[in-house]
Amino acid sequence: MSENFINFSEIRDLRTAFDLLDRDQDGHVTPEELQFMLRNLGIHVRDELIDDLLREASRTGSGLIDETEFLQWVARIQALKEESNTSSGSSNSSSTSATQAADDDLTQDLVAAFRVFDRDGNGYITRDELKSAMDMIGENVTEYQLNEMLELADADKDGRINYEEFARLLL
């Protein structure tokens, strides 16, 4: 069951993600802030779904989440993901095809988001491309934050982010 816990490194990374989402730095993520980030990454989600997700994640039901609620929300998502990965294969063919369709949609969204970052189309996101993408979506990141993001995503430590590393980071 220890896989369901978030380790210190993941908490640090999630705090960085929360800071990027919290555009006005008021300590809360609003539906508008989450939607802004997703749209700038080329991921289109209905406003109603964003509202529902944040309302569910909020202890008060206000639709605003603070850093603690964000961390708890991600931990619950990871636990559910782990649970679904370890569940038996007793699904019927219609749920399997629905899962496949959802996976295909997710893959398309990830590829679209990757292309936003990979400005020259060479299959890698460089430090400069990451900085440009953050600027493009209105996120003024410090050199430290930029280095943290690159370190977080660059699993093979070659100084750039390939598609697999990008997808692993977001999933």
Automatic annotation (TrEMBL):
<keyword id="KW-0479">Metal-binding</keyword>
<feature type="domain" description="EF-hand">
    <location>
        <begin position="45"/>
        <end position="80"/>
    </location>
</feature>
<dbReference type="InterPro" id="IPR002048">
    <property type="entry name" value="EF_hand_dom"/>
</dbReference>
<feature type="domain" description="EF-hand">
    <location>
        <begin position="105"/>
        <end position="140"/>
    </location>
</feature>
<feature type="domain" description="EF-hand">
    <location>
        <begin position="9"/>
        <end position="44"/>
    </location>
</feature>
<protein>
    <submittedName>
        <fullName>Putative ecdysone-induced protein 63f 1</fullName>
    </submittedName>
</protein>
<keyword id="KW-0677">Repeat</keyword>
<keyword id="KW-0106">Calcium</keyword>
<dbReference type="InterPro" id="IPR050145">
    <property type="entry name" value="Centrin_CML-like"/>
</dbReference>
<dbReference type="InterPro" id="IPR011992">
    <property type="entry name" value="EF-hand-dom_pair"/>
</dbReference>
<dbReference type="GO" id="GO:0005509">
    <property type="term" value="F:calcium ion binding"/>
</dbReference>
<feature type="domain" description="EF-hand">
    <location>
        <begin position="141"/>
        <end position="171"/>
    </location>
</feature>
<dbReference type="Pfam" id="PF13499">
    <property type="entry name" value="EF-hand_7"/>
</dbReference>
<dbReference type="InterPro" id="IPR018247">
    <property type="entry name" value="EF_Hand_1_Ca_BS"/>
</dbReference>
